[in-house]
Design brief:
The protein is built from 1 helix and 23 strands. By secondary structure, it is mainly beta. The protein folds into 3 domains: 13-129, Immunoglobulin-like; 139-243, Immunoglobulin-like (Sandwich); 251-328, Immunoglobulin-like.
Length: 329
């Protein structure tokens, strides 16, 4: 009786934190084995199967008359899972996972997915082609960002948002395999996209980027016919963190604003007695305020006309410029 109670409690504990995850593979370019299509990985025991990495127990079902095979399982959220597809039921019939899709560290050649939500929807990244990087007609983009220059990582995690996923900062969380480098794999159609990284999952957590890598205050990527693995750029910068402070000095240390968040009057401490031009941008990169501050006058701005939200404040002097986040409450 005690053993049964323990098993029941374990089951309830797992299901309380479970999320539906859909694995799917496109077999269009392969003759399907008479033994079926399977998925294997380190998730199988948690999903109710006898063993992890069992090539023949987790059978995928064909979706109608298509060449796509899939299965939906319940898995604990906030976990990384490794997996691969098998055309048959023996491990030697496994796919060859391309480099761009692999875990890629310590000679690990498995696919991976991070389940980061307890929402009622199903986590589904798309039906990748067997042995391929992305669903048919789409391309893989592997985004990487280095947060070693940040004082701390938000408890909500590191995210990315862009016009390829509706600018939603809560839906695409990055995972760190090593140190402070966070990454995620996204599938997109060929085109040009803008995006930003977030240390957290709110609009206020967005990075402020200046430099020649920005378009409308955002990062930009052009996806053509090839899969892309980006270099781990430094959060808030256009360069690798190795070069921050060498070729691009941290000018923001010379700029302070208070209070922040603010609702009416904003004071600016420039630590420099020079004529200054102040420009405030919204998150779309549009100018919403332009002011010139004269020297020897206390730099104060009335921002009561601005709506609530996140803005970017830029200061320019003779040979100096700096930007910082501004939050209107």
């Amino acid at each position: 009786m005690k053993k049964l109670t323990f098993i029941l409690l374990m089951f309830l504990s797992v299901t309380a934190f479970a999320k539906k995850v859909k694995f799917a593979v496109d077999m269009s370019f392969f003759e399907v084995s008479p033994n079926g299509v399977h998925v294997t990985g380190n998730f199988q025991i948690l999903a109710g199967y006898p063993e992890d990495w069992d090539p023949g127990s987790t059978t995928m079902e064909r979706e109608g008359e298509t060449d796509i095979y899939s299965i939906v399982v319940d898995l604990p959220a906030f976990e990384l899972y490794q997996f691969r597809f098998i055309n048959g039921d023996q491990f030697y019939e496994t796919e060859f996972v391309p480099l761009e899709s692999r875990v890629g560290y310590d000679f690990n050649d498995n696919r991976w997915i991070y389940v980061d939500s307890l929402g009622n929807d199903t986590t589904f990244v798309g039906a990748v082609t067997f042995g391929g990087n992305a669903p048919a007609g789409m391309n893989l983009v592997r985004f990487l960002v280095n947060l070693e220059r940040e004082a701390e990582i938000a408890p909500e995690g590191v995210h990315i948002a862009g016009d390829f996923q509706g600018w939603e900062p809560t839906s695409t969380r990055l995972y760190n395999f090593v140190d402070q480098i966070y990454e995620t794999i996204c599938f997109v159609y060929p085109g040009t996209y803008e995006y930003k990284y977030y240390n957290g999952n709110t609009p206020e957590a967005t990075e402020i980027i200046t430099g020649d890598c920005t378009v409308n205050g955002n990062r930009q990527i052009e996806v053509e016919e090839e899969d892309i693995v980006l270099e781990p750029i430094c959060f808030g910068w256009c360069v690798d963190c190795l070069y921050v402070g060498i070729s691009d000095p941290d000018i923001n240390s010379s700029l302070r604003i208070f209070p922040n968040p603010v609702s009416t009057t904003l004071e600016i401490d420039l630590r420099s007695n020079l004529k200054s031009k102040v420009t405030i941008y919204n998150t779309m990169g549009e100018i919403v305020m332009n002011r010139t501050l004269e020297p020897d006058i206390k730099p104060v701005l009335d921002v009561s006309s601005l709506g609530k939200g996140l803005y970017i404040l830029e200061i320019k002097q003779d040979d100096f410029s700096a930007t910082t986040k501004l939050i209107i409450k």
